[in-house]
Structures are given as structure tokens and as C-alpha cells.
Amino acid sequence: MEAHRSAEHWGRYVSVFLLFSSALNTVYAVTHYSIPEELKEGSVVANLAADLGLDVMELSRRKMRLDVIANKKYLDVNKETGELYIVEKIDREYLCISKTTCFLKLDATIENPVRMFNIELEILDINDNAPHFRRDTMHLDIAESTPAGERFSLNNAVDPDIGMNSIKTYYLSESEHFNIEIQTGRDGSKFTDLILKKALDREEESVHNLILTAVDGGVPSRTGTANIIVRVLDANDNAPKFDKDSYNIDIMENSPIGRLVVKLNATDLDEGSNAEIVYSYSLYTSEKTQETFSLNPNTGEITVKDMINYEDFRIYDMEVIATDKGTHFLSGHCKLTILVTDMNDNHPELSIKSFQSPVKEVIAVDTVIAVVSVSDKDSGENGKVDIHIADQLPFALRESSDNYYELVVSQPLDREKVPEYEITFTVTDRGSPPLSDNETMTLELLDVNDNVPQFPQSFYTIPVMENNAPGALLSSLTAFDPDLHENQYLVYFIIEKEIVNTSMSMLFSINPENGNLYALKTFDYEIEKEFLFHIEARDSGVPPLNSNVTVHIIIVDQNDNPPVIVSPWRAHGSVVEEKIPRSTDKGSLVSKVIAIDTDSVQNSRITYQFLQVTDATLFSLDQYNGEIRTMRMFSYRDPRHQRLVVIAKDNGDPALSATVTIKLSTVETAVKAYSDMTEVPLEYDIFSDLNLYLVIGLGSVSFLLLITILVTCVLKCQKPMPSKAAPPSRNSVISERNSTIADSTLVSNDAYWYSLFLAETRKGKLVVRQPVPKAASRYIVSSLPRSTGLTETSDSAASTLQYPK
After folding, report:
1. Transmembrane segments in this chain: where (predicted)?
2. d(C-alpha 369, C-alpha 114), whole Å
3. Is the whole-model pTM more than 0.90?
């Protein structure tokens, strides 16, 4: 509270300077405070939050901070109250050496969004330093011949304070012979000359002890004293005199060491040692000036001794004394003012005050990314700085206040095209030649889920060989997503589509992680030929994005079905037995082998060959239609029984085949078994040495017995059963056989069904002995000549093709 009252005692004021920019339509403010130096730690300067119009509750969240100055943190902001308070005592004399005004320029920065406030803190001087002399005792030797009015330079007092608190006047103790004359320097400092107001008489008083007091203007005032011891010397009555009382000299900064600045010349009208002159700096010349320039005591040449920097000192004031070597030396004075001319020797400086990285790739245009400041220690055109960045970057610089610039987004960003930017700020002054500097910062972009997964193709055709193993890999359907991390992780799905009450997930599966497509079952080309469905790829972003691709699965046929011999029919593993008259002519049709293959194209093309034949000269086989014909007429030397083994082979690779064995028996009479489409036929052997009537009698008895059995079965099963007929006459046998063979040719190799069938024509009906697909029965009907007039009927036991009544 005491420190706070002290601050109130000195007074505080806040002033806000507004800069209007019509081009940017923005307002920039500088907040000004004034406080006295040496305030205690914890003293409150002002409520910064209130002065800046900020919400105190938001200070911590928005990370308000003050820049550190000269590696010392003199002030800070209480983020709970918004008060600006003293952290460390401020010594104005330490902070602003030899300056009449002292300002601390602070930058208060807040984030979310980024804002920067310029604060100017004026440090007011208090009278906390007393004047003091460089030398506590000053010795002066004055010849007694010195005339009244002669002046002698004294060591001036210094006071680090400024303004009213600096030295205001000097007082000299009472003296009959001396008084002082106070003078004011260019910088406002006070110094004094000792004036001889009455001629000295060494014999009366050889030593004069005086006290010089320096008084500052503070309230209360402070003082400092020095002793002046004046020794009265004997006469050397002519003092050296310079050609000019004052000199103004211009010199370029960074002039090389040793360079001649000026050569002073003083003369003494005395002779001998009293005319020999020695040059020296007066006590008025500052130590900095004496460290920068060297004075030759014998020649009066002033040369450059140390580096001259315009930015440190622009004007050097000095006073040179020319003293003779008389026993009682005399001296002359001249003043020099050296003006330093600026040259462009300082590179412009760049400071990044705030920088946001990384940022999202969807950051809005005109968003502030960074705040930078520029400066140059040079003056004039040499101190004016221009800043720029590369033109091809999607960013722009916008001046926010004096020497402050904002880096804003000027174009939309896309991480997939450019994941990060190297932004180089280049600052160049307007000197000749211009100097420049640069600083590079890296802006990283954060990924946003803004890209849909993409498949290399929009349509995939995948051939799959039938009889594949369940779980076999069909293909790998991989999509690409240029996003990163979870936005890049893809999951694959099969879009459900039902086909005949079967969903695609029951037929195929896809690995959700890598897109590998598998078959869940073994496919049969003869049942399923193709599938068409969609696969979706979905990323793991929020919200997720997806795309799909069409997949066409084509089942490729494999030669996996051997030919099936459907005519002549025989029981599994049995031999087909047929009878033909021995009087059969050459070229007569004996039998016809018909085979079907459910495979497609090449695999279903069937050729026929004899595998075994009793007499190769007796029968021929057409390799394309399977017709067996006689090559000549039978002779008595030919065996009665002929064994023919026919192989039906498809065109696959490797080829599959089926065989049928036909046993042909030659008869003298027209006796013929039922055709190969009946049930297991009865075999009749006609013996030439038996009575024909006995054969007919045995056949009749057998026929009646068979009819009795069949009728009994029909009555029990209530199903129509075919019955055996009596052996027909020779002519009817030949006619029926030829009709059966002709009809059997109507069944095509390309019939698309699996079951074997047996059929016979009985009383206007073609009875199918084994169950066959309905389409096959239609195929048989459509293949028969229209003159037959057959129609299709069916019951639980068999499919029946029947003539219309």
C-alpha cells in the first residue's frame, strides 16, 4: 500500500494514441503510463486489462504476456486482477544513461486470436543522486602576474539525475581574489570557470584554499563539494593562443583507426620554455571522447583512436588546452565539435513476436499466422526497412502498426499438395548499397479429412475358375486416401445385394483392413456364371468419407464333367444288348451313341471312337454324330455275337470320356429286344435247331406272367408301370428299332441337365424312366418331329410325353 501511495503521489496518467488506416480499416493504440523510478516491488502501475478493454477472466486462457526487456523483467501483469505491477526496481540512471527522457516500450500479447498491444512506460526521474566531482581536490597554479579577469577551468560536478534534479548552480566559498562564472553546455549540463577578480600577490598569500559546492534542483536539494587549492606562481605573462577559438568538424562513422581528424595550432609570444606548448584535453572533455580520439601532446594532432559508431554517439564535444612550459605555465583553450556522419553499416533486424504452427489445412483465408517487427539502427534512408516474402507462397504481409507486420493466409491451403511451408522473411533497408537480413520459419499443416478414398479403377472384372477352394483369394481391391492417420485408415465392406434369397456376404468376404476379396464357397459354372456387386471403402475420419467400386465376378468353365452316354441306355455297369438281322444291308444303321456334356464351349464338344470292336471291317462309327453303320453284309463266317466298345470323349484339356459296350447278336428271324431306352430288356436267342412254335409258346407264357406281376405292382403303388409286350414280328422289330434310333438322334449333346433318362414309346406315350428337369423334357418334345404330336405331362413318378388323343 505504501508503494501504491507512492505511485499515486507521483501521479499516473494513461494516454492512448490512435493511428487510423483507411486501407486496412483498423485502429492501433499505444497505451502510455508514467511512473517514478525506484518504486518498490509489487507497486501497481495501472489496471492494464481495464485500460485495454480486456476481460480479466480471459487473461489466463488467452495467455497474456509481456516481452522481456534487456534480459530483465521489470513489470508483469497479474492475470487474476489485470493489474500491471513492478517486479524489479527500476533505476532510471541505469536504464537510460545520459538521456533526458526514458521510455520502456513493451508489447503485451494475447492469443486466441492473436492481438498485440503497444505499451509505452515513461520512467520519471526522482532526486536520488547527489552531485559529485570527479576530483575531490583541484590544484591550480596561477602566476602572480595573471591579470584580473583571467579564467581557469574547474572540474565540473556530475549528477546522474536529469531535469530539475540535475545540477543547477555552483557556490564558491568567500574569497577576495576569486569568484566563479557558471556556464551551460550543449546538453544542458552546468560547469564553472574560476575567475580571478583581483590580482594576486604571492608575497601576501601564496596559497588560496577554496571550497566549490555544486547544488542540484531537487526538492529537497542535494549538494557535493570539492577543494580548490590555488598556488600563486611567479610571472610567465603570456599564455598560448589557438588559431581559432572553436572548430566544427565532420567525420564519417567507421573511419579507420589512426585517421587524422584535425591538427590544432597554438602560439605563445613568450620565448624559451615559456613558449614551448603542450596540448591536452581539459577536464571538461568526457572520458568517452578521450577514449575515441587521441590527442598528440606535442603536435596537436587529433586522430581516431577507437571505432566511431553513429548509432552510439552522433556529436563529440571536447576542449583542448595548450599549456606552455614556463616555470609558471600559461594555457589557452579551444573548443571542438565533431559531427559523425551516418553510413549504412547496420543490417536491418527482424523479430518474430508471435507464430502459430501447426495449423489446420482448412484455416480460413485472412487468418493471422504470425506477427513480426522490423528495425534498423541506422538513420534516414539507411534506417527505413522494407519486408517481403516469396510471391508464390499463399500468404501475405499486412502492416499492423509502425514497424509491425502480420502474416495472413491469402489463399486456401491443401496439406495433400504441400504438407508444410518454409516461409522466409527478408528485410532490406534503403541505404546505398542496401543491406538485408532474413529469417525462416516452418509452418506445418494438420490434416483434415477432406479426401474421399479412391480406387484405381471404377470397375473390376475378376475371372474365377470354377471348383475353386472355399476361402481362396480372388483379388485385392485396394483404395488410396491421401489424408493422414485415422483419416487415411480404410475399412472395406461388401454392399449387400440379394440374389435368389442369397446375400453376397454368403458368397464372398472381404478383409476390412486390406481389401482382399475371398470366395466363401465353391462355384459351379454349370449353375452360376457371374455375379455383380459393389464394394465400399470408408475412411476413419470424422465424419467418415467413402466411395465404392463395381465388381464383376465371371465364373470360368473347367472341364470337370465327363460326357454322359444317354443312348443307348443301360443300367450302371451293364452291357447294352441288341439284335439285328443277319440280312442287314451294307450302310444300315445299327445303333447310335448319344452322349451329353454339361460343360461349355470346347469342353462340351464330343467325338466318338471305337475302343474295341470284334471285326473292324464290319462296322463304322461316325466320330461326330455317333452313328454305327454296317460296312458290308454279314456272312456265315462272321461270328454271331459282335462286341463293340465305343468311347465318347470331350474336347477339354485334359479330355474326359465315357464308354458304352454294345453286344450285337445277329438273328435269322425278326426278333428284337426293346430299344436301349427301355428297362432292362429280355434277351432272346433264336436257335435254328428248335421248333419255332416252342419258342412262341415259351414267350407267351413269360409274357402272361410278366403282365400279372406288373398289374399287381400298379394296383399297389397306384402308379402306371410299363409292361412287356410279346415279341413282335420281324418286320415290326426292324421298323421299331429304326424309329427308336432315329428318335434318339434328336437329343442334343448340348442339353443342359445332369440326370440320365430312359424312355420308351408305348401306346402313344414316351415314358421317362428317371426324373429329369422340366426343361429337359421340353427339350425332348421340341426336338421330336412335329408329326409325332407329342405333348408333355408329369406325375410324381416320371415325366411323360404323350400323344394327344
Report:
1. 692-715
2. 9
3. no
